[in-house]
Amino acid sequence: MAFPFKVIGGNTENFDPSEAACLPFGFFHGYRVSTPRGNATVIGVKEGKLWFHVDGEQGATALDGDYEALLGLGVTQIEDAPTGVYMAEKAGDYHVKRIDIGERRTHIILQNENGPCPLIAICNCLLVRGEITLQPREGVSQIVTADQMCEALMNKMLQQASLKGAGGAGAEVEEAVMRVSAIADQLPKLQGGLDVNFSFTSIDDFEPGGQIDVFGLSGVRLVHGWIVDPSAGAELARALAGQRYNDVVSRLVTESDQPLTHAIHAFLQDTGNQLTNAGLGALRHAIAEDEVVVLFRNNHFSTITKHAGELYSLVTDVGYERERNIVWELLVDLRGARSEFFASDFVGTQSSKIQEASDTLVLMGYDAAEASMAVREVTQVSGRLVDDDTVTLAIAWIAANRPVNGPSNS
User: Fold this and answer.
1) Residue 54 pLDDT
2) Angle between the 351-363 and 390-401 helix axes, to the nearest 10 degrees?
3) What DSSP character marks residue 288?
4) What is the reported pTM?
5) Are the C-beta atoms of 28 and 34 separated by less than 8 Å?
6) d(CA 133, CA 156)
7) CA–CA gap between residue 22 and residue 19 (Å, rounded)
8) How far apart are the C-alpha atoms of 77 and 333, rounded to whole Å?
9) Strand 292-297 with 300-307, pairing
């Protein structure tokens, strides 16, 4: 079973958390350990190395060597991993994390494995909006089951159906209830994937029918950002207008030797992460302030919102279960190179703390511009979150990189 986790300065990668993989290193997935970089949690094995998530850092990092070598580096065990610290106890179990939305406390469901899981995204959307509740099973880790999620979603869809009768349209209610009943058996399958067929000219034009109707029946808006930019070529834009993804793929097969087909193929290749600048702009424009929706991207479903004009994605990686101040991730560019984590109130866990650390250095006598540069070098560039060591590291960076005097001792 692969375990997805973000690496420092990179993307989310898959790690092997199995006991067999970790055995040569002597420390196992979920163990709490002390490392030269600080206290950490063992993530798993990748490329022949054991990877750790150091408390406060923005991703995993690796240490070289086997068990003896790690001991030589000062790696020591703090505590064993309780059952299911990072991985769910069994299939269909999902960890949850408490967050605050304004003055309301709720849970969000965390992703145990790398996969699409539209069920998680839909339920998280409704949880953040306060339209459903889930009572987790208390224990070492809080767990909800897929059955609980399906039951909550079913109740929400029936509630939505009853709302159609508020104006006396009994026939509409009956039809909606029949649609809900017909799709009930499909809900558990939403733990896996979901076939979607969308157009390249509208963020919410999806082909209806089948499991995708769960979004409409539950009152959850589904969007995507794989939008063709008209400025990239009028002919290409016209060729994709009014056509959905499946139509375009079929066209590539039947008209493979046509010049325009080559342009379409190049567009699909160049935008393989399923998000374009035009799509990002369209999402910002079409999503209302503080509206919570589900985004389809990279064959994955995630919960997003817009706040103060910016788009944010709900952080559901189970590796951030203990990071209470990491709730949202800024969705500001196509590659995630400028991503930043934010707390539930959208206060940047980095921005405000970077300023605080810089101000501390200024009070110690360092130049403001120099202090700001040093703090950003030891945090954003390295992928490390601001912590108690940031000021010390910044002073060391200044001493190593700037031939200037620090605060005067006289």
Assistant:
1) 86
2) 60
3) P
4) 0.69
5) no
6) 10
7) 5
8) 39
9) antiparallel
What number of CA atoms fall less than 13 Å from residue 328's CA on the CB side?
24
* Residue 330 DSSP SS3: strand
Q: Sorting pLDDT into bands at 50, 70 and 90, what band is 84?
A: very low
Spell out the alpha helix ranges (H) of 64-117.
Answer: 67-72
CA quadruple 60, 46, 14, 26: dihedral sign: negative
For the chain, helix, strand, coil in percent to 5 are 40, 25, 40
Q: 146-163 and 170-183 helices cross at what angle (nearest 10)?
A: 160
Tell me, what's the pLDDT at 83?
Answer: 38
Q: What are phi and psi of 362, to 5 degrees?
A: -65, -40
CA–CA gap between residue 182 and residue 137 (Å, rounded): 30
Q: Report how far residue 65's alpha carbon sits from residue 50's, in angstroms, rounded to the nearest whole number.
A: 8
**Catalytic member of 22, 95, 117, 125:** 117
Q: In which order are the strands placed within the sheet that holds 300-307?
A: 222-224, 292-297, 300-307, 310-314, 328-330, 341-342
Q: In 241-288, where does DSSP find H-type helix? A: 245-254, 259-270, 277-286
For residues 215 and 157, the answer to whether their CB atoms sit within 8 Å is: no
Lookup result for tokens 């849970």: 107
Instruction: Verify whether residue 300 is a known catalytic residue.
Output: yes
Q: Specify whether 150 is catalytic.
A: no
Provide mean pLDDT across the span 177-199. Answer: 88
pLDDT reported for residue 378? 80
Find residue 123's DSSP bridge partners.
Answer: none
272 or 124, which is more confident: 124
Lowest-confidence range among 279-283, 305-309, 379-383? 379-383
> Can you tell me the distance from the alpha carbon of 120 to that of 303, in angstroms, rounded to the nearest whole number?
9
**Cβ distance 228 to 151 under 8 Å?**
no
The answer to whether 111 and 316 have CB atoms below 8 angstroms apart is yes
Closest CA to 30 of 3, 69, 67: 3
